[in-house]
Structure formats: C-alpha cells, structure tokens
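User: Sequence recovery, please. Input:
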C-alpha cells in the first residue's frame, strides 16, 4: 500500500487534503467588524446634508465573506438622539433569529450610546445587502452591500466565468430629513415624500446646484464625482447590482453593452440578455458584460426611475476603457425605458427562472394559502396601506421577545384575515370601503408546513392608479411560482404555476393591477417580517409578520430586550 502512494499519487492525495483543509478553514472563519453609527455632514449629490454614516461613510463598508463564515458586527450607536437597528437583507439567520435586525419584530432598538453585537452565519453565496430597519432611517444613508463567495469545492460553484467584477449599489436621495418625511406621512392631509432629488450610484450623484439653496451645493467636490468602473478590452466582467432605494423602481443600463443576467437574490438564473435591467428596492442581480466596444471612448452607466412619472434626473457613472480620455462620455446619458412600460418589466420577471443546473424543485402543493389584497385606505383621515383591509403597525415589544417570554398583551392575539372577497372585488376601481383598521397581530404557521402567498395589487384611492410594490420576506427564500395581470382566481391560476424551474428569491415585484404567487417552507424557527420594501409604504402599514416554530428558538440574548413589556428583566 505504501508504494501505491508514492510519486504522483501522493502529490494528488496531498493536493486533495490541502483543498479540503482550505475549504474547512474558509467555512470556519469568523470575520469581525467594528462600526460606529453617527450623523455626519455629507454631500453625496453635491448638496450638503446630515447623513447617517458607518465609521463616517455612506454607503457603509462592503462585507466580503465566504459561504460558511461567521460574521460579527459590533455596532456602537453614536447618533445621540436616535435609536438604531440593522437588517442583514437576504441572510436567512438560521439559528439566530434575534440577529435579523428588525426593530419591533426581532429586537428592541439599539439606544443612543449603547453597543449591540450582531453575530450570524452566511450560509449561501450571492449578492446581498444591509440597511437600517428602524423607522425610515434607511433612506438617511445607513446601508451597504454584502458579497458572499462560494465555498471552495462546494456544490454552489458558479455556472459562469468572468475575468473581473464590480459592485454597484443603487439608491435614491432626498435633501429633507427622514424625520420630516415621516411626520409628513402621518399628517392630515398627508405630505407625501415626493420624488427623490437625486439617484445615487455607489453613494454618488449630481444635483443641479443652480436649483439648490445658496451655499449648500458644490459641484466640484470629489465626494459627488461620478464613479468610474475600469474595464480591459476583450474581458468579461460581472457587475453585482443591488437596489436600496426608498421609493424608486429603476431601469439600469450600461451604454452599448448588453447584459446577461446570471444571478438574482443569491440564486443562479437561467441566463438571458437585456439591454436594460429592471430592478426594485430590495433586489440584487448579477449581470455579465463583454468589454467589446470602441476602447477610445467612455460609456455611461445610467439609472432611471420607472413605474412612477419621474421627476428625478438620471443617475450616472462611467465605464472606462484604458485608452479613453478621463472625461465624460461624448453621448447624453441613456434615458432608459418608458417609465410606464409595465409589460417590459413584467416580461423580465417572467423570464427570471432557475439555472438548469441549480434548480431546487418546490414542494408540489401547499398546506395553506394566504391571499393578500393590497389596497390604499384611510384611518382617522390618515392615508394608510392595508392588506385585506388591515393596516400593519409594529408593537412596542418585539414579537420574538414577547412570544418566547410569554408576555401577555404585548400584541393582538387575533390573526389578521388571510382571505378577501376575491370573486367580487374589482381591482380596477377605487376601494369600495376606503376605511381600514390597524393591527399588530401576526400569522402563526405550523412548523415545517408549505405556505403559498398570493399578493394582489389593486387601484389606489385615486382613479386609474396602481403602483409596483417590491415585497421582501425575512428569514427565507421563496419560490416565485407565477405572475399575472388582472384579478387572481384561485380556481384557475394555480394550474399555471411554474413548478418546473421557479427562481428562489427574497424580494419580488407585484406589478400594477397584477398578482404574484410565491411558496415557501415554514422551517426557520423565529418571527419574520414580510413587507413592501418601499420605505414610506411599510411605514404606512404595508406589511405582515409570520411566526413559525417559536418553541424551537433557543435562549434569547438579553441584549435584544429592554423595551415595551420586556423592560426590567432578562
């Protein structure tokens, strides 16, 4: 036997052992981050305003990890007058539901001057993000990206090749504060947040200083200079694109360079080519481009508002070849698709299915179906959003704490309705009953059960208005089974579901006057928010909460307590 391991055989065995050791080491690594959250004066679009920063920067640092790593982020809240909570968007928090970072759902907020440590594992490769999940703080600048590489030798190896990669974080930006916005939304009559002043790419935009208040805008600042992405002729590049907009659906384009979509929300996609990408708040994509255009000039990266009549200039960055001058491209920035071209966006949604080599088949049928009618309503004269005529409100005591500690009366024990009059409701008409009720009740799911959720979009309080809503589920990925335009019929449309190769996602669009069907398995013990990722809409009640397997959650860390009925005890 000893002779058989000599020479090439021994070298092969040694290489195999080394690869396995490196893979195990990568999985076992723990990555530590120290973050101080503070307000700083920033000029991301050349206009100076207060922004919530991480270690003085917005966006915050990109967290780079490898599948299987443990990430530890020690957060110090130096905001002085504001609480903080940070959600790790797309990270499922298996075994650590208290680290999801959702104030009112999984934790009490981090008080001014306090320190809180988030510890969680990244179990799946892909492109993700993080952001504030307290009030409307996300739109103030507390956000960034998470990039998780596949474990060496793992089954999740990427089914595509590229020579280099770039990260792109898309955002929208207002000059008025989030406190002003929240107060306006809660006012009678409502003071809507309005269209954003700028669109940012990697935290940079360019506002027209002639329209700014005197002394507040400086277009010469490097802080608001267009980002530059360098490419080499003939090479293929992966662009990881994440949208953390507070309001805007976007159309993203790289001038002259078709994009091949290969990843969505951390899952590999059956590749398809687009000239521009529709992307909604809370979504991530990876696209491949070939640097095969004239290398003697530069090209625009352009972000444009769609789904709403835009009042915001194009957000821009520059794709630069090595032989091109360091100057803006010679062409105007692309204007993108027509803002009201719903079918272009709808077709992209339908085209996004699982890569043939990475299909995870969904369970063939659901144990429970929840039908949610998404409407705009009023409560005491205030405009709200509601599901099945119930507008969501967060409790003062986090659900996870209340349920584990048996705190009676911490939230409404009556579950919200899970059906509506789908056979008779006219989705193209204004709500026949404009008045809604509010509740902090939740849906309790049998652990291990398969749940279908169908989101139905409808007309708003104004005639002939229905908007796109991107819905995000915490703690899970779900299979996207189908989309439709018009009224969902549970006796007809389930037969059209894609059970062959549906994509797994954590955020999905519900198109104007349309429906979206998704399926997930309630197998992650905890309490999980499911809500529209438009900041103002969740603030106005467009969300629900699921509980599953709460009895399986281990002992809660005392640091998540200290508010509502959880005060004074661990």
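Assistant: Recovered sequence (570 residues):
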């Amino acid at each position: 036997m000893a002779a058989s391991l000599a020479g090439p055989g021994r070298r092969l065995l040694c290489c195999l052992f080394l690869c396995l050791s490196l893979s195990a080491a990568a999985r076992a690594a723990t990555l530590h981050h120290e973050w101080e959250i503070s307000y700083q004066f920033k000029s991301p679009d050349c206009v100076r305003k207060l922004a919530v920063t991480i270690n003085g920067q917005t966006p915050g640092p990109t967290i780079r990890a490898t599948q299987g790593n443990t990430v530890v982020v020690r957060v110090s809240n130096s905001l002085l007058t504001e609480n903080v909570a940070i959600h790790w968007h797309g990270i499922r928090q298996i075994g650590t539901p208290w680290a999801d970072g959702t104030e009112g759902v999984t934790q009490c907020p981090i008080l001014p001057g306090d320190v809180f440590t988030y510890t969680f594992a990244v179990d799946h490769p892909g492109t993700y993000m993080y952001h504030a999940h307290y009030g409307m703080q996300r739109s103030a600048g507390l956000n960034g990206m998470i990039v998780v590489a596949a474990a060496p030798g793992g089954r999740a190896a990427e089914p595509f090749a590229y020579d280099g990669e770039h990260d792109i974080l898309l955002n929208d930006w207002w000059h008025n504060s989030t406190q002003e916005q929240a107060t306006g939304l809660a006012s009678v009559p409502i003071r809507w947040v309005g269209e954003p002043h700028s669109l940012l790419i990697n935290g940079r935009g360019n506002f027209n200083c002639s329209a700014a208040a005197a002394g507040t805008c400086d277009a010469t600042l490097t802080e608001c200079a267009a980002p530059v992405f360098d490419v080499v002729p003939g090479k293929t590049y992966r662009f990881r694109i994440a949208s953390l907009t507070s309001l805007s659906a976007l159309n993203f384009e790289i001038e002259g360079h078709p994009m091949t979509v290969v990843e969505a929300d951390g899952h590999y996609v059956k590749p398809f080519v687009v000239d521009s990408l529709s992307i909604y708040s809370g979504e991530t994509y990876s696209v491949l481009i070939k640097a095969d255009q004239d290398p003697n000039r530069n090209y625009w990266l352009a972000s444009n508002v769609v789904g709403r009549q835009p009042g915001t200039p194009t957000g821009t960055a520059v794709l630069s070849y090595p032989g091109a001058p360091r100057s803006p491209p010679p062409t105007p920035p692309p204007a993108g698709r027509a803002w009201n071209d719903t079918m272009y966006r709808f077709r992209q949604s339908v085209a996004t299915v699982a890569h043939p080599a990475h299909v995870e088949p969904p369970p063939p049928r659901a144990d429970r179906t929840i039908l949610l009618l998404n409407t705009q309503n009023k409560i005491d004269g205030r405009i709200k959003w509601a599901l099945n005529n119930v507008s969501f409100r967060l409790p003062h005591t986090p659900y996870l704490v209340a349920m584990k500690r048996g705190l009676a009366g911490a939230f409404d024990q009556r579950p919200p309705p899970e059906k509506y009059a789908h056979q008779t409701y006219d989705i193209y008409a204004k709500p026949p009953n404009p008045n809604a009720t509010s509740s902090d009740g939740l849906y309790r799911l049998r652990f291990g059960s398969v749940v279908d959720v169908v989101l139905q979009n409808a007309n708003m309080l104004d005639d002939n208005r229905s908007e796109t809503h991107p819905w995000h589920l915490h703690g899970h990925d779900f299979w996207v089974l189908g989309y439709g335009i018009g009224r969902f019929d549970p006796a007809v449309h389930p037969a059209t579901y894609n059970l062959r190769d549906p994509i797994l996602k954590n955020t999905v669009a519900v198109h104007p006057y349309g429906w979206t069907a998704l399926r997930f398995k309630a197998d992650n013990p905890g309490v999980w928010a499911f809500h529209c990722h438009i900041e103002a809409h969740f603030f106005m009640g467009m969300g629900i909460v699921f509980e599953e397997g709460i009895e399986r959650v281990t002992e809660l860390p005392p640091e998540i307590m200290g508010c509502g009925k959880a005060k004074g005890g661990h």
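Confidence is low (pLDDT under 50) at residues 1-6, 12-25.
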